[in-house]
Amino acid sequence: MLPDIDKLSLAEQVAQMVVVRASGFLFDHQIQYPVWEPPAATLQHWVQDLGVGGVILLGASAGELAIRTQQLQNWAKVPLLIAADIEEGVGQRFGGATWFPPPMALSAIFRKDQKLALDYAQQMGAITAQEALAIGINWVLAPVVDVNNNPDNPVINVRAFGETLDEVSQLACAFIRGAKTHPVLTTAKHFPGHGDTAVDSHLDLPLIPHSTDRLTEVELPPFACAIASGVDTVMTAHLLIPSWDAELPATLSHKILTGQLRQKLGFSGLITTDALVMGAIANRYGASVAPVMAVEAGADILLMPVDPQEAINGVCTAVESGRISRSRIRESVERIWQAKSKFHQPVSPTNFIESTAQNDALNTTVEILQHSQIIHGSALSLDKLIKTIKLNNKSALALRNLIVVDDLFLCDFLNKLAPAMTLPAQMGYETQIIDCHTQAISNLEQNHPTLLQMFIRGNPFRSSAGLTKAAEDLFKKLLTTDDLQAFVLYGSPYVLQQFIPLLKADIPGIFSYGQMPAAQDCALRTLFGM
Fold first, then answer.
1. What's the CA gap between 342 and 182, in Å, rounded?
2. What is the reported pLDDT for 278?
3. Mean pLDDT score, 127-136
């Protein structure tokens, strides 16, 4: 039951507007990002004593998370919003659950068969919501409704549903329709559109130079569509948009959040900031300043403030000084109460295991992968590859499975049991991995027929530009020595476009939007004719 808002103190009301980051793991020694994820005692203090309104989680298995979310709710006096960035399904963040290909994979299908793509998007939304609820997540931070019309975008990239507003609008709204078949909150992000940027807002503040007409024609329609489809929350973008506000980023701009989103688009749901610890905001505004400015702008949820206690104190001080009215705080808390009243489901570790989505989810994942795969080279080339493998298995030449990834220690899709390792091994290949911790490619031995597997996509905090250049140099070296036998690229279609001009016609290859084990299995079985 939600308490009477009037019985909460000002500090308790403001605390309900704060959502903090925490590890999904149960024990302190498992914390992976100590800068952002507090130890258990601190987290319990924030939830139990400060009364923060929600927690965003990352890491752990789905089964562990069911225990974690139950623990958090037991600490809280007011039911918590439990959020996760699960744009590619629950398995993207929590092991054992369904991990779908990135949303852009659906745009490849959409261009061939719109009805099929929309059906897949709706299934993704429904399965994501069902699995989220089963482990205690009630707030899905998806879908991304940015139109990724800039190939150099380092942070959105394949997270978007496509490059055109039609693709993005239709597919994102189908995802929302699917998710709404279960009592979870959905989120359209990142308002007013992070697609046409070449700067990662996790690191710095991107600038959108477009006119109001251009924003109205391209960036805003997917948000309008999402709002019409009943999306519960809209997440702000840390962007500077001079045509709307020459001084303040969207997250801190009253002209943008209230003027554009509330008044012009008529959105009446929750407005949440993107994470306030991101460089675009944290590097420019203080721990207690940014939260106050975000509330003034029109935000209801302060996501991941640098210091939760300072954020609460800062907003309370602004209210007590008359800078922010008490009615403004109450408006946000009322929206939060309205959102929290939509869900109540007991959680147990067996909920997820008993979820009826599992078999259908696996089939849906594989079908999407198969329909969105791009195959290069002819059937003759594939036949030639198989014959070459058989020939080389009988010769003295060692077959090499060369895997390129940015940082092996940060890869949750590669281990000794990953298909990228095991399937080539069955064919007689020996695995070699190149990442930021390994030797330069100049030391690469020659005269080894090579299957090259490259994992390259845009990732927050990790630009793919350096990795792409290193992979391109390696690609050229293998072509020069005639060692390149076949290749698989997992990740960004924009990277693929850089490699195609270099490719010889008789070398077969596969492109997959997904990088997870199911994508590896699907791509390699296609390549090897398994």
1. 10
2. 87
3. 95
Are the C-beta atoms of 326 and 10 separated by less than 8 Å?
A: yes
| Catalytic one of 182, 194, 202, 210 | 202
For residues 30 and 15, give the distance between their C-alpha atoms in angstroms, rounded to a whole number. Answer: 27
pTM confidence score: 0.92
Contact 45, 10 (CB under 8 A): no
Label residue 405 exposed, middle or buried (CB < 10 Å: 0-12, 13-18, 19+): buried
Structure tokens at 465: 């530009």
Of 245, 274, 406, 483, the active-site residue reads 274
Contact 304, 36 (CB under 8 A): yes
- What spatial distance separates the first Cα and last Cα of the chain, rounded to whole Å? 55
Tokens of 415: 């281990």
- What is the number of alpha carbons within 13 Å of residue 385 lying toward its C-beta? 29
| Three-class secondary structure of residue 386 per DSSP | helix
Residues 280 and 253: beta-carbon distance below 8 Å: no
Question: Which of 369, 360, 361, 416 is CA-nearest to residue 519?
Answer: 369
Domains of the chain as residue ranges with CATH: 373-528 (3.40.50.10870)
- Residue-wise DSSP of 247-301: SS-GGG-HIIIIIIIIIIS---SEEEPSPTTSHHHHTTS-TTHHHHHHHHHT-SB
Residue 210 catalytic? no
**Dist. CA 230–CA 394, nearest whole Å:** 61
Report d(CA 170, CA 103) in Å as an integer: 12
- 3-state SS assignment for residue 306: coil
Burial 146-164 (b: 16+ CB within 10 A, else e): bbbbbeebbbbbbbbbbbb
| Antiparallel, parallel or unpaired: β 374-376 and 509-512 | antiparallel
- Peptide bond preceding 192 in cis form (omega within 30 of 0): yes
What does pLDDT average to over the chain? 89
User: Does the active-site annotation cover 435?
Assistant: no
User: For residue 470, what pLDDT band results from cuts at 50, 70 and 90?
Assistant: confident
